[in-house]
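QA checklist item 7 of 12: single-chain prediction sanity check.
[x] sequence parsed
[x] length recorded as 231
[x] structure emitted
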Amino acid sequence: MNLPECKSRKALKRLLLVCCAWIFVTCLSAQRHYTFESCQLGPEWRYVGRPDLSKYLFVDGKLRLKGSVFELREEKPSTFVGLEQTTERFVAETKLTLFDAESGDEAGLCVFKSREGYVQCCLNNYQGSRRLKVRLQLLSHRLLLVDRHVGLLSEVWLRVSSDGSKLKFYYSTDGEKYQWLEDVDLRLLRSDLVGGEDQALVGMYAFMGSTKYQSGYTFGDFSYFDYQENP
């Protein structure tokens, strides 16, 4: 083997190593952007329990979730769909519009570990006005961590991130400037405390807490869902 050929092979090996490293880093920080214009959810999407599929619709390129009268802690069909958390560090984001809401109705983001352990960040209707809430379900306790009045707001961007030790919740009214809402210690969602699988589900939900559901359903329209691993 002559010297130029040896140097050429070494250069090729270095190039291959750089390409492999780039692919590895790209995979680690993979970002998934979901829109709903195809009017279907792929096999990666998961429900809690047996879903009532009549409450999962596609309207004008958005995912419309009709509120269930059953909460996620109940062994009955609640309205939730999410992705499996695959890394400790992640960021998830969505844009939500809340329609036809009576007092007690809501929709938003949820990090679900089990029926005894999950966190919700939602836009809630309360006596004619809107509130942003962060709520922790911990065993038999339902803890309201944030209850912020936001006037008649009907459209909001919601974001949750994890650094491996805490969940951090944010909201925005324009999709650009985000404001912090609350941090939640992930030790509260340990499997040995609340049960459930090793990995949580991160997704969207809708709930109808009003008593007027006989006349119709409140619903949340979700324009997109972004999920980024190892940001």
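[x] summary fact logged: Residues 15-29 have pLDDT under 50 and may be disordered.
[ ] second reviewer sign-off
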